[in-house]
Amino acid sequence: MLGTSILDGRVAAAALAWLLATLAIYVFNGVMDVTEDRANGSTRPISRGSLPVPIAAGGVVAAGALALAIGGVVDAGGWLPVLILAYLACGYAYSGAPVFGKRRGSTAMLLVLGMGVLTYVAGWQAAGREGGLPVLLLGTAMSLWMAGVGALSKDLSDAEGDAAGGRRTPVIRWGDTRVRVLITANAVLIGGGYLAAALFFAPILIPSALTLVAGALAVGVLAATSRHAVGRDGRRRTYRGFMVTQYAVHIAVLATLLLEGL
């Protein structure tokens, strides 16, 4: 969205299509994770029984189809519908047969990385392919953030259910302590790399880069201090730190764009 109006109707419609595709992926994951989620004490609607599986499955199909339809209207003859389809395919591969990517750490991280990259490419496509290097740097940094920090920190609170579901996540294979060290190292490297790239190549991204560095340090602290936390909520602090940082970085980008337009 860098380089174009954030209020552009075409961009907003494309964002709606992507949101629907994301909803389809998330609900499908919930459908496929009922056993593991219940073992982990998750409060997701499907696992707690407030959203019946057949209705959820129907919602997945409806949301995915609507996302593709909107994408086809917004970018008729363009790449957006293809990107949405690829995004949905990655989401299916993460949770569904025969890939079951979520069961292995390396596959899960690659699929999360792919979905991140597709998200930023779709935004670039919807915005008329404007933005250039800043979009590339932002998309690369945050896709790596999702794969190298988010995909790992998500597993910290779910080891029991993951083991029950036959998964071989990094936490199960390498142990909790090693994964926390890896999360911290990845967070600092990604944050530092993004800040260096912003300083040298895209000054407009410096506020968001400083936000990511601060978030990376916070994630490292949370990874260290929540190791012996009691209860699932306590064990999810690192993942929450990851999510808050991700939101904060994008808010910083939007705020910078708005201030630049004044």
Q: Can you walk through the features of this model?
A:
With 262 residues, the protein is an all-alpha fold. The protein folds into two domains: 130 residues, UbiA prenyltransferase (Tetracycline Repressor, domain 2, Orthogonal Bundle); 129 residues. It is built from twelve helices and no strands. The radius of gyration is 19 Å and the shape is globular. The mean pLDDT is 90.
Query: How far is it from the N-terminal to the C-terminal residue, by CA?
Result: 17 Å
Structural class: mainly alpha
Q: How many strands, what sense, and barrel or not for the largest sheet?
A: none
What radius of gyration results from the CA coordinates? 19 Å
Q: How many discrete domains?
A: 2
Instruction: Give the beta-strand count.
Output: 0
Mean pLDDT, all residues? 90
CATH topology value of the largest domain: Tetracycline Repressor, domain 2
CATH architecture name of the largest domain: Orthogonal Bundle
Helix content: over 70%
* The CATH homology group name of the largest domain: UbiA prenyltransferase
Strand content: under 5%
**Judging from the principal axes of the Cα atoms, what is the shape?**
globular
Order of helices and strands: HHHHHHHHHHHH
User: How many DSSP helices?
Assistant: 12
- Low-confidence parts: none
GO cellular component, one term: membrane
Main location: membrane
Subcellular location: Membrane
Organism: Nocardia transvalensis
